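Forum > Structural Biology > Help requests

Title: Can anyone predict the 3D structure of Transposase?

Hi all, first post here. I have the sequence for Transposase but no way to get a structure on my laptop. I'd be grateful if someone could post the structure tokens.
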Amino acid sequence: MKRRRFSIEQIVTVLKQAEPGMPLADLIRRAGIPVQTFYGWKKPCAGMQSDRMREHERLQDEKARLQKRVAQPSLGVAILQDAASKM
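Reply #1:
Sure, ran it for you. Structure tokens for Transposase below:
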């Protein structure tokens, strides 16, 4: 099954519809998402507007990129140290 990506605007719309009191089961069925996805969106994005969510997503991507950048040299150093200790 192909994984569906929602835009930030679509996520914000679904989260805002949940606030006024629409039954959650109806909202999830109309949006076509699982309950876990809804709560996964709600936890980090509660109360954010679409521009703040976009910034949050950009920062998360940058964080992941920087973590990879730090991890790669560290892995190389660990491999070299392991090889040197075996000699």
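The mean pLDDT is 81. The chain has one domain: 8-86.
Shout if anything looks off.
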